[in-house]
Amino acid sequence: MFDDLTDAESKALAQCRHAVLGVGQPMRLDCGVDLGPFRIAYQTYGTLNADKSNAVLICHALTGDQFVADRNPVTGKDGWWESIVGPGRILDPARYFIICTNVLGGCLGTTGPLAHEPATRQPWNLRFPVVTIADMVRAQAALLDHLGIPDLFCAIGGSMGGMQVLEWAASFPKRLFSAVPIATAARHSAQNIAFHEVGRQAIMADPEWKGGDYRLHDTAPERGLAVARMTAHITYLSEQALQRKFGRALQNRDTVGFGFDADFQVESYLRHQGSTFVDRFDANSYLYITRAMDYFDLAAAHGGVLSNAFKGSPTRFCLMSFTSDWLFPTRESRAVVHALNAAAANVSFVEVESDKGHDAFLLDEPEMFRTLSGFLQGAANARGLAGGSK
Amino acid sequence: MSNAIRVDLQLIADMVEPGGRALDVGCGDGALLAYLVNFKRVDARGMELSQAGVNACVANGLSVIQGNADTDLFDYPDSAFDYVILSQTLQATRDPRAVLEQMLRVGKRAIVSFPNFAHWQVRLRLVFGGRMPNTPSLPYKWYDTPNIHLCSIDDFRALCREMGVTVERAVVLNRNSRPIRMPPPLANLFGEQAVFMLRRD
Lengths: 390, 201
Fold this sequence. Notes:
The structure holds 2 protein chains of 2 kinds.
Chain A: H1 7-15, E1 17-21, E2 27-28, E3 34-35, E4 38-45, E5 55-59, E6 97-101, H2 133-147, E7 152-158, H3 160-171, E8 176-182, H4 190-205, H5 222-236, H6 239-245, H7 265-277, H8 283-295, E9 316-322, H9 330-342, E10 346-352, H10 366-383
Parallel strand pairs in A: 5-6, 5-7, 7-8, 8-9, 9-10
Antiparallel strand pairs in A: 1-4, 2-3, 4-6
Chain B: H1 7-15, E1 21-25, H2 31-40, E2 43-48, H3 51-59, E3 63-66, H4 69-72, E4 81-87, H5 96-106, E5 107-115, H6 120-127, H7 153-163, E6 166-173, E7 179-180, H8 184-190, E8 193-199
Helix pairs in contact in B: 1-2
C-alpha cells in the first residue's frame, strides 16, 4: 500500500520512526472519507518517564518536518528547531520525551497524496482526501494511543504548528497539560488564504503538474512550486528585514543589466529559496497542507464563538507573537487570548519585539527563549515534573 | 525565591484565603502574584499594561497577559475568580467606577489599594504651598502623572455606598505603610494609602 516511495521519503523513513495506524478501524476525516491504514512518520528525543508525564509534542509548520533537532536526511541541514530542542536547551531530551510527527498530508514519510490508495493500489495524487488541521491532530492523538501515552505535558508549535496546538486544546483538553501556540491564529485570514491561492495556482499552472499526476509522467511542476515558495517566503519576512538584508544591492554586478536576470540580491535570494525548496518538498503535498490551513477556523467549528472551543479548559496556555509578523499579526493571538479569558482559562501572552517577521519563531529570539523557558518551568513545577531549572 | 514583598502588597496577600483563584490587575513585576502562587497556593493570574512587565512575569513562570483594566476585564465570565486585585492602579484608570463594577462581576471579592488624596501632606502642599501635591505615594508632576482619578479614603467609601457595595475590610496605612486605627475623619487625614476588600451584596 505504501509502495513507490520517493527518494526523500525513503531517506526520511530510514532516519526516523513510523507507525501504521487505522488498520482495523480507519480514521474518519472531516471531509467524510475513512482513511486507513495510514502511516505516521515521527521522530523522538529523550525517554518517556515512568509515570508518562513528560511527553512534549512539537507541531511543525507548513513546510516543516519531523527532524526538529537532528540532521535532516533530505537537505543535510541541521534540525529546524535546534535553538530550542536538544541537550542543554529549553526542551532538553534529558528531561522531556519529545515527539514530532510529519503531518497528515505531508511528504516526508507520513501518508499524503504521494501514498497509494489501498483499494486501487494506485497513487492517490489529487484523489487523496482533503485533510484538515483537526485531522492532523486526530492522527497525532492516534499515534499517542499507539505509543501508550495518555496525555501530553505540552504541545508546542509556530504558525500551522500553532494551529495544531490550538486544535489539540479544543479537541483533547484533558490530554493537554500545557499549550504553546506561537505566531498563529484561530482562523486563517482572507489575506493568508489569498497568498496560498497564488501559490497553488502557480503549481497548477505549471504544465508539468499534469492534473496532479506528474509522478506517473516522471516529471514534477518544479517551476510552479518554486514560484509558490518564493511568494510564500516573502510573507515570512518583514519589510524591514528584507530592506536590512538586501536593500537595493545588486547581485554580482555594478550596474543594472537592462534585462530580466536576477539583477538584485533579493531576486537571487528568492530564486535560491524556490529552487532548493523543490528538492525537498512535493507539489501536491503543498496543495493539501495549504488547504488545511485555509480551512482552519476554530470558532466556526464551535458554534461561531471561539471561547466555546476552550470552555472549562484545564490547560495552561502561553501565546507568543512578534511585532513585525504581518502574516499572523499580534491581533490574531490577542483574539485567542480574549477567547481564553472568556473561558477563564489559565493564559499567558507575550508579544516579542522583533523585526524578523513571521519567521522570527524559528530564529534566535532571546525574549522568546526567556518566555518559553519561564513558562515551561512554571508548568513543570505545577505538573510535579522532576528536573532542574533550565 | 524571596518571601519579602512590599508592605501594602503583604497586606493584600494576607486578605487572600489560600487555595483560591485570583486575578491581579496591574500586576507590575509580578511580586504579589509570585507570593500568592508560592506561599498561598493560589491559582493567580495577572494582567499588566506594560509589555516589558508582562514578559518579565511570564519569564518567571507566572500567568500574565498584556491588558488594560479599563477595557479587558469585560472578557472574563461572571465570578471567574475568588479575588480580583487592583493595587495602586484605580486612580490611573479612565473609568474607576466601571472598573470596580467589572472587578466585582468577575470576582466574588475585590481588593483595591489606592493613595489617599486627603492625606495631611497633600492638603498642606495644596493649601499653603499652592502647588500640586508631590509626596512619596504621589511622586509625579502634574503634567506627567498617570493618576487621572485621584480620590480620598472618604470619597472611596462614598462611591462604595453609592454602588451598594459592601466594605468587608478597610485598612488604612500611614507614611511607613503601617496600619493605623483611627475613626474615619482622622484616618482620612493621616492615612497615606488604604486597602479595601469589597464584595457584592
